[in-house]
Design a protein that fits this description.
mainly alpha
């Protein structure tokens, strides 16, 4: 179980670190995040900015708790992460169901509209956070340094892939082929050119 705890720590730690960094990279970044929260339409206008600030603060606290090498801190970090991710999942699902597809600003600038992949991603991360919290009490001190390194590296790799979800999904999204002129359209086009020349 210790390896599971280390792996999930690396996974969630990196995901939340990149998320916080993307939102506080500058005033424009945070303003864009606030705008994306407003575009979801799940909050009253007066609560949008306070909730956005609370989200950033909560994500930063998760990063700190998961970085502290204490069991109690890890448990608290996992539980807070699960709570935030559950709220994200519900909010995004509600917005998508009502036809709101604002760009996802989860990890900074993005043009990818919110959709099912984001709901699934957050649900999986929430399950991982819950599993981490449940695994902490069962973790033992019997572990090898090599195993810890492998578990941590696997978690970081998974976290890196998740933060790049939108670019990865866009690679497999079908592209629309440019409209082609049929034979009739081509004949009309040449006929129009001939009339202009005459």
């Amino acid at each position: 179980m210790e390896y599971l705890v280390v792996g999930v720590r690396g996974l969630l730690g990196l995901v939340f670190l990149v998320s916080v960094g993307g939102k506080v990279a500058g005033r424009p970044a945070f303003t864009a995040f606030v705008a994306s929260v407003r575009a979801l339409g799940v909050l009253p206008p007066a609560l949008v900015r306070p909730v956005a600030r609370s989200v950033v603060a909560g994500e930063a606290v998760v990063c700190v708790l998961l970085a502290v090498p204490v069991r109690g801190a890890a448990t608290a970090g996992f539980l807070l992460a699960a709570l935030l991710l559950a709220a994200f999942t519900v909010g995004i699902a509600s917005a998508v169901r009502r036809g709101r597809t604002a760009p996802c600003r989860c990890f900074g600038p993005s043009t990818a509209p919110l959709g099912t992949p984001h709901i699934v991603r957050n649900a999986v991360l929430c399950a991982a956070a819950t599993a981490g919290a449940l695994a902490v009490p069962m973790a033992t001190d019997a572990r090898s340094a090599g195993g810890m390194v492998v578990a941590g590296a696997a978690g970081l790799l998974a976290g890196a892939l998740i933060t790049q979800l939108d670019p990865l999904v866009s690679l497999f999204r079908p592209t629309r082929a440019p409209a082609r002129k049929g034979p009739v359209g081509a004949v009309r086009h040449h006929h129009h050119e001939a009339k202009e020349l005459s």
